Amino acid sequence: MSAPRLRSLSLGAGVQSTCLLLLAAEGHLPGLDVAIFADTGWEPRSVYAHLDRIEWEIAKPAGIPILRVSSGNIRDDALDPSKRFASMPLHILNPQGTEGLSRRQCTGQYKIRPIKEQVRRLLGHPHPQRVPAGVFVEQWIGISTDEVHRAKDADVAYMRNRFPLIELGFSRSDCVRLLRSRGFGSTPKSACLGCPYHGNSQWRQLRDGSPEEWQDVVEFDAAIRKGNARATAQGTPLLGQAYLHRSRRPLDQAPIDRVTAHEWSGRQGDIFDAIADAELEAGDPDGCSPWACRSGSPVADGFDLIA
Protein backbone atom coordinates (compact mmCIF):
# COMPACT_ATOMS: atom_id res chain seq x y z
CA MET A 1 0.00 0.00 0.00
CA SER A 2 1.30 3.45 -0.87
CA ALA A 3 2.07 5.95 1.88
CA PRO A 4 -0.04 9.08 2.42
CA ARG A 5 1.30 12.41 1.22
CA LEU A 6 0.45 13.83 4.63
CA ARG A 7 -1.62 13.19 7.74
CA SER A 8 -4.38 15.64 8.56
CA LEU A 9 -6.65 15.95 11.59
CA SER A 10 -10.28 16.98 11.16
CA LEU A 11 -10.32 19.39 14.10
CA GLY A 12 -13.76 20.29 15.41
CA ALA A 13 -12.22 21.71 18.62
CA GLY A 14 -14.44 19.45 20.72
CA VAL A 15 -13.42 16.76 23.20
CA GLN A 16 -12.34 13.96 20.89
CA SER A 17 -10.52 16.00 18.26
CA THR A 18 -8.75 18.09 20.94
CA CYS A 19 -7.66 14.84 22.58
CA LEU A 20 -6.25 13.63 19.24
CA LEU A 21 -4.34 16.88 18.78
CA LEU A 22 -2.91 16.56 22.28
CA LEU A 23 -1.88 12.92 21.75
CA ALA A 24 -0.13 13.86 18.51
CA ALA A 25 1.60 16.87 20.07
CA GLU A 26 2.90 14.72 22.93
CA GLY A 27 4.24 12.12 20.51
CA HIS A 28 1.80 9.34 21.38
CA LEU A 29 0.48 9.54 17.81
CA PRO A 30 3.42 10.59 15.67
CA GLY A 31 3.23 11.88 12.14
CA LEU A 32 0.43 14.49 12.19
CA ASP A 33 1.25 17.19 9.63
CA VAL A 34 -1.72 19.55 9.83
CA ALA A 35 -5.09 20.09 11.52
CA ILE A 36 -8.06 21.57 9.63
CA PHE A 37 -10.88 23.43 11.38
CA ALA A 38 -14.01 23.95 9.27
CA ASP A 39 -15.65 27.15 10.53
CA THR A 40 -19.42 27.48 10.02
CA GLY A 41 -19.13 31.17 10.92
CA TRP A 42 -21.59 30.64 13.77
CA GLU A 43 -19.65 28.73 16.42
CA PRO A 44 -20.00 29.64 20.10
CA ARG A 45 -17.46 32.11 21.44
CA SER A 46 -16.25 29.35 23.75
CA VAL A 47 -15.26 27.22 20.74
CA TYR A 48 -13.31 30.03 19.08
CA ALA A 49 -11.57 30.81 22.38
CA HIS A 50 -10.71 27.14 22.90
CA LEU A 51 -9.42 26.87 19.33
CA ASP A 52 -7.13 29.86 19.89
CA ARG A 53 -5.87 28.34 23.13
CA ILE A 54 -5.08 24.88 21.76
CA GLU A 55 -3.39 26.45 18.75
CA TRP A 56 -0.98 28.43 20.94
CA GLU A 57 -0.57 25.94 23.80
CA ILE A 58 -0.65 22.60 21.95
CA ALA A 59 -0.31 22.87 18.18
CA LYS A 60 2.28 25.60 17.68
CA PRO A 61 4.82 24.23 20.19
CA ALA A 62 4.54 20.85 18.44
CA GLY A 63 4.91 22.36 14.97
CA ILE A 64 1.40 21.36 13.87
CA PRO A 65 -0.27 24.12 11.82
CA ILE A 66 -4.00 24.65 12.28
CA LEU A 67 -5.72 25.76 9.08
CA ARG A 68 -9.11 27.45 9.36
CA VAL A 69 -11.36 27.02 6.34
CA SER A 70 -14.91 28.10 5.60
CA SER A 71 -17.73 27.89 3.06
CA GLY A 72 -19.51 30.92 4.50
CA ASN A 73 -21.61 31.89 7.51
CA ILE A 74 -24.39 29.38 8.05
CA ARG A 75 -26.59 31.86 9.96
CA ASP A 76 -26.30 34.66 7.43
CA ASP A 77 -26.78 32.31 4.49
CA ALA A 78 -30.00 30.88 5.96
CA LEU A 79 -31.52 34.36 6.23
CA ASP A 80 -30.25 35.70 2.88
CA PRO A 81 -32.78 35.18 0.04
CA SER A 82 -29.99 35.51 -2.52
CA LYS A 83 -28.06 32.54 -1.14
CA ARG A 84 -28.48 28.87 -1.95
CA PHE A 85 -28.68 27.59 1.59
CA ALA A 86 -27.67 24.07 2.65
CA SER A 87 -30.56 23.24 4.94
CA MET A 88 -30.19 22.49 8.63
CA PRO A 89 -32.10 19.54 10.18
CA LEU A 90 -34.88 21.74 11.53
CA HIS A 91 -37.76 20.30 13.55
CA ILE A 92 -40.94 20.65 11.46
CA LEU A 93 -44.54 20.86 12.64
CA ASN A 94 -46.83 20.10 9.74
CA PRO A 95 -50.33 21.63 9.31
CA GLN A 96 -51.95 18.28 10.17
CA GLY A 97 -50.06 18.24 13.47
CA THR A 98 -47.57 15.60 12.35
CA GLU A 99 -43.88 16.10 12.99
CA GLY A 100 -40.89 15.90 10.69
CA LEU A 101 -37.24 16.83 10.27
CA SER A 102 -35.91 18.81 7.35
CA ARG A 103 -33.10 17.44 5.22
CA ARG A 104 -29.60 17.83 6.65
CA GLN A 105 -27.24 19.39 4.11
CA CYS A 106 -25.35 21.78 6.38
CA THR A 107 -22.66 19.27 7.35
CA GLY A 108 -21.77 18.65 3.73
CA GLN A 109 -21.67 22.33 2.78
CA TYR A 110 -20.07 23.89 5.84
CA LYS A 111 -17.85 21.06 7.13
CA ILE A 112 -17.00 18.47 4.48
CA ARG A 113 -16.76 20.75 1.46
CA PRO A 114 -14.18 23.23 2.82
CA ILE A 115 -12.08 20.40 4.28
CA LYS A 116 -12.02 18.60 0.94
CA GLU A 117 -11.11 21.82 -0.87
CA GLN A 118 -8.23 22.40 1.55
CA VAL A 119 -7.02 18.80 1.28
CA ARG A 120 -6.91 19.11 -2.50
CA ARG A 121 -4.86 22.30 -2.22
CA LEU A 122 -2.46 20.62 0.20
CA LEU A 123 -2.03 17.76 -2.27
CA GLY A 124 -1.31 20.25 -5.05
CA HIS A 125 -4.41 19.35 -7.05
CA PRO A 126 -7.13 21.93 -6.34
CA HIS A 127 -10.61 21.42 -7.77
CA PRO A 128 -11.34 20.84 -10.64
CA GLN A 129 -7.99 19.16 -11.24
CA ARG A 130 -7.95 15.39 -11.03
CA VAL A 131 -6.06 13.93 -8.10
CA PRO A 132 -3.73 11.21 -9.47
CA ALA A 133 -4.36 7.63 -8.41
CA GLY A 134 -2.44 6.68 -5.28
CA VAL A 135 -2.14 10.27 -4.04
CA PHE A 136 -4.05 10.69 -0.79
CA VAL A 137 -4.23 12.25 2.67
CA GLU A 138 -4.63 10.15 5.79
CA GLN A 139 -7.47 11.94 7.55
CA TRP A 140 -7.67 11.50 11.32
CA ILE A 141 -11.21 11.59 12.71
CA GLY A 142 -12.01 12.06 16.40
CA ILE A 143 -14.42 9.17 16.92
CA SER A 144 -14.06 7.21 20.17
CA THR A 145 -14.91 3.63 21.10
CA ASP A 146 -18.39 4.50 22.38
CA GLU A 147 -19.40 5.72 18.92
CA VAL A 148 -17.57 3.19 16.77
CA HIS A 149 -20.67 2.77 14.60
CA ARG A 150 -20.00 6.28 13.25
CA ALA A 151 -16.62 5.41 11.84
CA LYS A 152 -17.02 5.51 8.06
CA ASP A 153 -14.69 5.38 5.10
CA ALA A 154 -14.13 8.55 3.08
CA ASP A 155 -16.16 8.82 -0.11
CA VAL A 156 -13.22 9.98 -2.24
CA ALA A 157 -10.00 8.17 -3.12
CA TYR A 158 -7.74 11.09 -2.15
CA MET A 159 -8.80 10.88 1.51
CA ARG A 160 -8.48 7.79 3.71
CA ASN A 161 -10.10 8.08 7.10
CA ARG A 162 -8.32 6.81 10.19
CA PHE A 163 -9.69 6.62 13.74
CA PRO A 164 -6.74 6.69 16.19
CA LEU A 165 -8.92 6.92 19.32
CA ILE A 166 -10.58 3.63 18.42
CA GLU A 167 -7.16 2.11 17.72
CA LEU A 168 -6.01 3.19 21.18
CA GLY A 169 -9.18 2.00 22.88
CA PHE A 170 -10.12 5.53 24.01
CA SER A 171 -13.71 6.25 25.04
CA ARG A 172 -15.04 9.77 25.36
CA SER A 173 -14.60 9.53 29.12
CA ASP A 174 -10.96 8.60 28.58
CA CYS A 175 -10.57 11.70 26.44
CA VAL A 176 -12.13 13.86 29.15
CA ARG A 177 -9.80 12.42 31.79
CA LEU A 178 -6.73 13.11 29.66
CA LEU A 179 -7.83 16.65 28.87
CA ARG A 180 -8.56 17.35 32.55
CA SER A 181 -5.12 16.10 33.51
CA ARG A 182 -3.58 18.58 31.06
CA GLY A 183 -5.71 21.55 32.13
CA PHE A 184 -8.29 21.35 29.33
CA GLY A 185 -11.24 20.10 31.35
CA SER A 186 -13.49 22.88 30.07
CA THR A 187 -13.23 21.80 26.42
CA PRO A 188 -16.57 22.85 24.80
CA LYS A 189 -18.76 21.08 22.29
CA SER A 190 -18.07 21.78 18.64
CA ALA A 191 -21.44 22.68 17.17
CA CYS A 192 -22.85 25.87 15.73
CA LEU A 193 -24.91 28.03 18.06
CA GLY A 194 -28.22 27.13 16.46
CA CYS A 195 -27.71 23.41 15.92
CA PRO A 196 -31.14 21.68 16.09
CA TYR A 197 -29.49 18.66 17.70
CA HIS A 198 -28.69 20.57 20.89
CA GLY A 199 -30.08 18.96 24.02
CA ASN A 200 -31.85 20.85 26.80
CA SER A 201 -28.69 21.22 28.88
CA GLN A 202 -26.90 22.89 25.97
CA TRP A 203 -29.77 25.33 25.44
CA ARG A 204 -29.80 26.08 29.19
CA GLN A 205 -26.06 26.61 29.25
CA LEU A 206 -26.37 29.09 26.38
CA ARG A 207 -29.32 30.92 27.96
CA ASP A 208 -27.80 31.13 31.43
CA GLY A 209 -24.15 31.55 30.52
CA SER A 210 -24.19 33.67 27.37
CA PRO A 211 -27.30 35.90 27.14
CA GLU A 212 -26.09 37.67 24.00
CA GLU A 213 -25.62 34.42 22.09
CA TRP A 214 -28.94 33.14 23.46
CA GLN A 215 -30.73 36.19 22.09
CA ASP A 216 -29.05 35.59 18.76
CA VAL A 217 -30.39 32.03 18.47
CA VAL A 218 -33.85 33.05 19.72
CA GLU A 219 -34.04 35.64 16.94
CA PHE A 220 -32.78 33.11 14.39
CA ASP A 221 -35.35 30.56 15.54
CA ALA A 222 -38.15 33.07 14.97
CA ALA A 223 -36.76 34.04 11.55
CA ILE A 224 -36.70 30.49 10.15
CA ARG A 225 -40.29 29.59 10.99
CA LYS A 226 -41.17 29.24 7.28
CA GLY A 227 -37.87 27.67 6.27
CA ASN A 228 -34.90 29.22 4.50
CA ALA A 229 -35.20 32.72 3.09
CA ARG A 230 -34.44 31.87 -0.55
CA ALA A 231 -37.19 29.27 -0.83
CA THR A 232 -39.67 31.65 0.79
CA ALA A 233 -38.64 34.48 -1.56
CA GLN A 234 -39.14 32.16 -4.54
CA GLY A 235 -42.66 31.35 -3.40
CA THR A 236 -42.00 27.89 -1.99
CA PRO A 237 -42.03 28.27 1.80
CA LEU A 238 -42.40 25.29 4.08
CA LEU A 239 -45.96 24.03 4.34
CA GLY A 240 -45.37 23.56 8.05
CA GLN A 241 -43.35 25.52 10.58
CA ALA A 242 -39.67 25.08 11.42
CA TYR A 243 -38.13 25.21 14.89
CA LEU A 244 -34.69 24.76 16.45
CA HIS A 245 -35.99 22.91 19.52
CA ARG A 246 -37.34 19.36 19.23
CA SER A 247 -40.50 20.36 21.14
CA ARG A 248 -41.44 22.40 18.04
CA ARG A 249 -42.11 25.47 20.13
CA PRO A 250 -40.40 28.88 19.91
CA LEU A 251 -37.00 28.57 21.55
CA ASP A 252 -37.70 31.12 24.26
CA GLN A 253 -40.87 29.16 25.16
CA ALA A 254 -39.45 25.65 24.79
CA PRO A 255 -39.24 23.37 27.88
CA ILE A 256 -35.46 23.52 28.12
CA ASP A 257 -35.52 23.45 31.94
CA ARG A 258 -36.78 19.87 31.86
CA VAL A 259 -33.94 17.48 32.71
CA THR A 260 -34.15 14.44 30.45
CA ALA A 261 -33.78 10.83 31.60
CA HIS A 262 -30.51 10.63 29.69
CA GLU A 263 -29.14 13.60 31.56
CA TRP A 264 -30.18 12.11 34.91
CA SER A 265 -28.45 8.85 34.08
CA GLY A 266 -25.28 10.81 33.31
CA ARG A 267 -25.47 12.55 36.67
CA GLN A 268 -25.81 9.28 38.58
CA GLY A 269 -22.73 7.50 37.18
CA ASP A 270 -19.04 7.73 38.00
CA ILE A 271 -18.07 11.32 38.68
CA PHE A 272 -15.71 11.49 35.72
CA ASP A 273 -18.28 9.90 33.43
CA ALA A 274 -20.88 12.33 34.72
CA ILE A 275 -18.63 15.20 33.74
CA ALA A 276 -18.18 13.65 30.33
CA ASP A 277 -21.86 12.80 29.84
CA ALA A 278 -23.79 15.58 31.58
CA GLU A 279 -24.35 17.28 28.23
CA LEU A 280 -25.32 14.08 26.45
CA GLU A 281 -29.10 14.09 26.21
CA ALA A 282 -29.56 12.73 22.70
CA GLY A 283 -27.18 11.90 19.92
CA ASP A 284 -23.45 12.52 19.61
CA PRO A 285 -21.95 14.01 22.79
CA ASP A 286 -19.27 15.95 20.99
CA GLY A 287 -21.29 18.13 18.66
CA CYS A 288 -20.85 18.47 14.92
CA SER A 289 -18.17 16.75 12.89
CA PRO A 290 -18.19 15.92 9.18
CA TRP A 291 -18.15 12.20 9.92
CA ALA A 292 -20.02 12.12 13.22
CA CYS A 293 -23.05 14.38 13.12
CA ARG A 294 -25.68 13.70 15.76
CA SER A 295 -28.28 12.49 13.31
CA GLY A 296 -26.37 9.35 12.42
CA SER A 297 -27.82 9.63 8.92
CA PRO A 298 -25.80 10.07 5.72
CA VAL A 299 -24.90 13.57 4.64
CA ALA A 300 -27.32 14.71 1.97
CA ASP A 301 -25.76 14.98 -1.46
CA GLY A 302 -27.56 18.11 -2.62
CA PHE A 303 -24.24 19.89 -3.20
CA ASP A 304 -21.07 19.11 -5.15
CA LEU A 305 -18.74 18.14 -2.33
CA ILE A 306 -15.57 18.36 -4.45
CA ALA A 307 -15.24 14.69 -5.34
Task: Write structural notes for this entry.
This protein is an alpha/beta fold. 36% of the residues lie in helices and 10% in strands. The strands form two sheets. Strands 3-2-1-6-7 form a five-stranded parallel beta sheet. Strands 5-4-8 form a three-stranded antiparallel beta sheet, with no helix packed on it.
Global structural class: alpha/beta
In terms of DSSP E residues, the strand content is 5-15%
Bulk shape: globular
- DSSP summary: helix tally: 11
Order of helices and strands: EHEHEHEEHEEHHHHHEHH
Largest sheet: 5 strands, parallel
Distance linking N and C termini: 22 Å
The helix content, as a percent range, equals: 25-40%
Strands of the widest sheet, in order across it, are 3-2-1-6-7
Mean pLDDT: 85
Write the layout of secondary structure elements.
Layout: E1 6-10, H1 15-25, E2 34-38, H2 45-62, E3 66-69, H3 74-79, E4 91-93, E5 99-101, H4 106-123, E6 137-140, E7 159-162, H5 164-168, H6 172-181, H7 200-209, H8 211-223, H9 229-233, E8 241-243, H10 261-268, H11 271-277
Helix pairs in contact: 1-2, 1-6, 6-11, 7-8, 10-11
Short description:
With 307 residues, the chain is α/β, with parallel strands linked by helices. It is built from 11 helices and 8 strands. The chain is globular, with a radius of gyration of 19 Å.
